[in-house]
């Protein structure tokens, strides 16, 4: 059996499929926690409105270590499915011979990008479970500062910023055009459609702003602005209508979180 054939056989397993689906409610929980943190920031409290802040919130709860390992496992399982999609194309579970079909390169690249994101979240959750999450966050900011000292490092940061901004723009397009409905096994319905549109558009706008903040930070040599999502949320809060915009962003992240719970049952695999 070839490597692609082995991957295809794995995606044909209902057990493996449902293990991968377990990542969706985990992702939904992280989005709801980020929404909660954004609401707190809008109300004048401190916090990190990104995955690090969400993981830190989990770590501070009773049984937090167990919850963090569940997050790490769920994100890793979802990442492995995205890697399978990178190899076989989208929705390999729907095709008995997915390893023999042609799949657009762009679809594989999108799957690979999501795989990297989920792996990063899995690794971060494991770090928090082991008690070194904050140190990892501080090292990331230190790495940004070091990259800013060289021309090649700036190119890397700008490339990362462009990638995040592009991903955000795609999310806005996917939500506004309702393309996300193509990822569902059901027509959608009013509730799922509203959650999907609001969630994709709101998160896409914030991600685009996060990418722009990384690009700007690389030229300003300010590593504190290269923290992506959290920097974008803080910048949003500093605008004239900051608190209101933050509440809208929080509602969007909460909507995407609830949409992720729906994906647990209705996502095409």
Mean pLDDT: 87
Number of domains: 1
Radius of gyration: 19 Å
The N- and C-terminal alpha carbons lie at a distance of 22 Å
Poorly predicted runs: none
Query: How many DSSP-defined strands?
Result: 0
Task: Please describe the biggest sheet, giving its number of strands, its sense, and whether it closes into a barrel.
Answer: none
> What coarse outline follows from CA principal-axis ratios?
globular
SSE pattern: HHHHHHHHHHH
Indicate the structural class.
mainly alpha
Report the total helices: 11
Instruction: Specify the helix fraction band.
Output: over 70%
Strand content: under 5%
Commentary on this structure:
This protein has 269 residues and is mostly helical. It has helices at 3-11, 14-21, 23-42, 51-59, 64-88, 105-129, 133-147, 151-176, 189-220, 229-237, 242-266. Helix 4 (51-59) packs parallel to helix 6 (105-129) and helix 8 runs antiparallel to helix 9 (189-220). It is globular and about 55 Å long.
